[in-house]
Amino acid sequence: MREQSRWNPLIQAVSLRHLMDRLLEDSFAGPGDRGDSGRTLRPPLDVYTTDEDIVVIMPLPGVKPEDVDVTIEGDIVTIRGEIKPDVENVDYLVQERLSGPFRRVLTLNVPVQPEKAGASFQDGLLTLTLPKADALRPRSIKVQASK
After folding, report:
1. Which residue of 75, 84, 127, 147 has the smallest Cβ count within 10 Å?
2. Is 141 helix (H, G, I), strand (E, B) or coil?
3. What pTM, to 2 d.p., does this model score?
4. Sign of the C-alpha dihedral, residues 134, 103, 16, 11?
5. How many CA atoms lie within 13 A of 139 on its CB side?
6. Looking at residue 30, what is its pLDDT?
């Protein structure tokens, strides 16, 4: 029997917003947003939340950490860089691995503490840890008996 999950309208809204952002980015990207090949890559990513943090994981195989730029401005995170080809100035018979500039822009809709944010790069995975603002963290309230 399949386990039922609880409906979360926030997740549905974020998914719809992500799809709309992607549609608009793909439709209206200007010439300044594109590389020499006429396209900007959109590497896949995962975003999840814990009580304390928002975590972003993006696979970037073959990319050096110094070739990745991450900026946080308000609730907008921008990840950009370039995936360089292994071999240049050759005629490929088959080229399935993409190369070129990449850019992802995430609107978190959750206040974070950019000064405490961290980024690590291991085994081709970029992991961003963005601490939530203190006001959003869950707090325990001790219940006391009334007199």
Report:
1. 147
2. coil
3. 0.66
4. negative
5. 7
6. 45
Token pair, residue 71, equals: 């900026």
Quote the distance between the C-alpha of residue 99 and its chain's center. Answer: 19
CB 12 within 8 A of CB 20: no
**Cβ contacts of 56 within 8 Å, gap of 6 or more:** 45, 46, 47, 77, 79, 106, 126, 127, 128, 130
Residue type, 104: R
110/131 Cα distance (integer angstroms): 10
pLDDT digits (tens, 9 = 90+) for 70-121: 999 988 999 999 998 888 888 888 888 888 899 999 998 888 999 999 999 9
Name the burial class of residue 42, with classes exposed (0-12), middle (13-18) and buried (19+) by CB atoms within 10 angstroms of its CB.
Answer: middle
Q: How is residue 8 written in tokens?
A: 């979360």
CA 91/CA 57 separation, integer angstroms: 33
Residue type, 3: E
Q: Quick check: 57 and 126 in contact, CB under 8 A?
A: yes
Cβ atoms of residues 105 and 74 within 8 Å:
no
Joined tokens for residue 34: 């594109």
The 10s digit of each residue's pLDDT in 4-16 is 666 666 555 566 6
Q: Report the length, in residues, of the chain.
A: 147
> At 11, which amino acid appears?
I
